[in-house]
Amino acid sequence: MSDVVRPHQDHFFAQLDTALDAVDSVDESAPPASLWHDAWQSLRTRPIFWVSAVLILLVIVVAAFPRLFTSVDPTFCELKNSVRPSISGHPFGFDRQGCDVYSRVIYGARASVSVGILTTLAVVLLGGIVGALAGFYGKWFDSLLSRITDIFFAIPLVLAAIVVMQVFSTKRTVVTVVLVLSVFGWPQIARITRGAVMSVKNADFITAATALGASRFRNLVRHVLPNAAAPIIVTATVSLGTFIVAEATLSFLGIGLPGTVMSWGADISHAQASIRTQPSVLFYPAGALALTVLSFIMMGDAVRDALDPKARTR
Amino acid sequence: MTDSLTTPAFPVPQHHKHGDAPLLAVRDLEVSFTTAGGIVHAVRGADLTIYPGQTVAIVGESGSGKSTLAHAIIDLLPGTGKVTSGSILFNGTEVTKASKREIIALRGQQIGLVPQDPMSNLNPVWKIGYQVKEALKANHVDVSRVMRNTLTEALITDEALLEVGPNGDDLYLGRKAKKALLRDLRTALAGVRGVDQAQAAVDAASAALVVGATTRSQVVAILTAAGLPDAAATVRARVQGSDATDRVAGLLSEAGLVDAERRATQYPHEFSGGMRQRALIAIALAARPQLLIADEPTSALDVTVQRQILDHLHGLTEELGTAVLFITHDLGLAAERAEQLVVMYRGKVVESGPARQILAAPRHPYTKRLVASAPSLASRRIQSAKAAGVQATELLAPTGGDGVSSVRAEVLRVENLTRVFQLRGARPGSHTDFKAVDDVSFQLRAGTTLALVGESGSGKSTVANIILNLLDPTSGKVFFDGTDMSTLGRKDLFAFRRRVQPIFQNPYGSLDPMYSIFRTIEEPLRTHRIGNKASREKKVRELLDMVALPQATLRRYPNELSGGQRQRIAVARALALEPEVIVCDEAVSALDVLVQAQILTLLNDLQAELGLSYLFITHDLAVVRQIADEVCVMNAGRIVEQATTDEVFDHPQQDYTRELLEAIPGAKLDIFGV
Q: Hey, which residues 613-652 in chain B have their CB within 8 Å of chain A?
């Protein structure tokens, strides 16, 4: 090591132009932020979120207040109107039975949306509890619950529903459909919850809370679950769409909701007969179904991107 | 700083053996990143000069732009990073304007990179040897072709080319040739010196001859020394170069890996952190670059391993004449290893120049603070001051009260603590026992600080977890205030939690991201049902004052705070229940030097104010000197040395302690007048 200083290597020091007290400080004027706050900030800049939000809102309003959108009675059917194209007052025309298609699409929303929302709630509750307990308590308890989950996961949702719905053939209602779909639909949420809980439960802040004296259950409810919520919400939003499809499938097969309850699935099934003469009879309920499912899936995607910046596609 | 070099139009002549022209000249470099929050200027007007064969260190805390500057040199800026202005002139090539092809030619062949994290920078699915070979192939170092050419040349000119210098010679010893040579040596010596002596000479030669690394001229020297008559002729006949597999083993041996031939066939998960870092060094130096960029190459490793690796790297690069750009957050380490220092702060070079000059007379306020608070330097300064007869305590951060005194009541005692973990064996159901903590005893006196020091895997954190009652000991007892903890019921245990509180290492992980700061600090009070809403809020505000954070922090969330602030919050949370003992598990290890100093001062002040006792668990002896009254050194689950801090630093009894002390960066520096 020589002490000869070569060009550009002499002792240089800059003038102080940054306050050194700023070493360990944070902008205090900024508004308080949290995961949800940040997620909302990111969500509201996304057009896909607004499009899907407007569509979902519209579907829910239609389902809750169908009378706002049509004054035609969907059950008033006259065979003389069978497969007539649209006329004034009946924009979508008539189906084979001579019922107003527009009015049936509007009234059909209620069954689809309520089955979707109720099933999702039940599934999140059931799958969430099973997954959270399995993931948090681990060991043999996890093995037991996970194997049960695997068994249910192996059974195809629609196939199982077809078999079980046969049992309820006399008393098919929205509740029975929700029940059957929930019983066979929870494993996905359970798996997601288990994974999310397991990734959070070893975090330092859980150990810190334990050392403070917090009980295990308190830790699970107060610390683990809120931190594991994001992936559960995302999966739930996406699966809401699939449950609507499942209900439509069951109704299409004639084992979903009874004929007295109007649903898109049943209407699609009935439209089969007139698909050659008047395809629009099939198109409108199918379109409504597709749009609803699409908007829920789009919403799920948008929420996932907002909650998990790593998953954002460039 | 004005010179013709600032104008990149003038090309610098290439291949300087003894540099009067810089190898690397960075001038006025600006690098910025585009983020959602706007453009971030990561590097602002940075200058950097490296001459051939020189070691230069960039020092700065996290976020100072030191890594960004280094990555800009090899055009490896992540994501949206872009060089917006300035020039990077490497060996006559303007890197900022170079084409993709030129950059690829530059990387590996002329500039090598040793990345920061040895754990994630090797591909887990490929064998180590394959990954080194890949480095040779990617840089077109065709070992067998070199061999062929040399052979052809030798045939044509009919000369052995044995005069080539060690680094100019591409003809390395192959593994078959080594075997043959050793056989020759054995037969030659057996007749003259007897079997035993011959065996000894063969063993010695075998150790000295490294496959793929020893060149022919070296082979001749070694064999002549071993006593082989007419070594040159034998070598000429036997050594005909090495193939790629030999060369890979040679590169790994050069990087200091023992038994490299076998190691090359192993996978990264079979390597320890230090061994992986050696493999990465082998990869970086495979194509013999002129500049090696080492980005915090040892910050993930234990101090003793760090020292070995850096010593080795230094020797190797010196031998090869490679210039090194060393990036580190540790000023002591940088000063010890580099001739030139570049101190960066907030994207700017605030001070640069010869290392000793900067340490002895820092000019910029930031550097002054850095020099004052770097633990390795502080430790060194205390030592020097002592030798000069100055009271060491004056140089320390103010400690609580009167230091160690045996009259103080003991608050925590650990007796014969042992903890055995069962590791799963190869067959289902089988397991092996692993003693993480082996017969550990110590006591902590009220109002003092006891440091538990050891490298990773020494069992120090397991001890902490047992004391915090997060883990049960296999045998042994923990007495708190005279009470045996194992006899406590659920309710008493709950009460005990109030009296012993932890502060964890990672301030980013130990706070629940979903809780506001207020809720975080309030949680212990709420869990123990202390006070009502109003009194709890008052208490939280008091605690914030105590750790010197503004009240405005209350409504914020952890992700908005800096590392140091988060650790203050963790301290406030630990203090909420007015405990007597605080277990600090690597509480300052993840923080930048200046922040580390601030937190240590805070802990000291709180100890003086509240009479707290600290059990301070750390791997960093330099920090220990600043805070602890007593030290227990742990190695492989056992306490190997236990004494007062001064005693341990001044008269270490055990080799292991001595090794640890020597490994503190900056130990070799002589700027403080000893």
A: none
